[in-house]
Amino acid sequence: MSILLSLFLLQAAPVAAPNAMPGEEIVEPYTVDNRNAGAVPFTGDGMAKAFHGQDGIRRIVDRMVDTNFADPVIGEIFANQDKVRLKRTIFEQFCYILNAGCSYTGRDMATAHKDMGVQKADMNRLVEVLQGAMTAEDVDFQAQNRFLSKLAPMRREVLQK
Ligand code: HEM
């Protein structure tokens, strides 16, 4: 095989994502960039503390993702998606935005939700599920609302156009 052809194949082939956990499915290649997280992180350590650091963020994300998959309203959208990857990438995104010491290595919000058909009601349900997970972790309401305000502008990337 010519060197050029092998280089082409190498580039075109899907590769395991950076930070991938065992059990994750392979995704199409994309450029890793913290800006894919879709929000500028908070400064200082106040928000990280309010969410009880990386351990708290991990508990919130695990609970949120498990609830999403089991949910009667939005569970259908999550069925057959890669839960292992989702837990990792959403953890990274939240941890990055909360300035709790992570980089985000997932896809940007428009790419991740393309052609998924997400409607306003699905978005509202997901926010309710996230609120429930933050409340279960005893995150105070002021910190919850500051975080939700950071996520709010992402709606337009996630909703089906
Ligand atoms: C502001 C709101 C939202 C944020 C911040 C968010 C965040 C994310 C992130 C970080 C990923 C992973 C990207 C990757 O793996 O590269 C993702 C994927 C996904 N999201 Fe969202 N999301 C939001 C809203 C929603 C809503 C409302 C739904 C459906 C009800 C949804 C369903 C999904 C699904 C099914 C995937 C998996 C896509 C795949 O693996 O191909 N998301 N989201």
- Write down the CATH topology: Globin-like
**SSE string:** HHHHHHHHH
Question: What is the number of domains?
Answer: 1
Major sheet, described briefly? none
CATH class: Mainly Alpha
Beta-strand residue percentage? under 5%
Gross morphology is globular
**What's the total helix number?**
9
Overview of this protein structure:
By secondary structure, this protein is mostly helical. It has a single domain, classed as Orthogonal Bundle (Globin-like), CATH 1.10.490. The protein is 55% helix and 0% strand. The longest helix has 18 residues, at 53-70. Bound molecules: protoporphyrin IX containing FE (HEM). Protoporphyrin IX containing FE is lined by residues 74, 77-78, 81-82, 85-86, 89-90, 93, 106-107, 112-113, 116, 118, 122-123, 126, 151, 154, 158.
Brief write-up:
The chain has 9 helices and no strands. The chain is mainly α and 161 residues long. The protein has one domain: Globin-like.
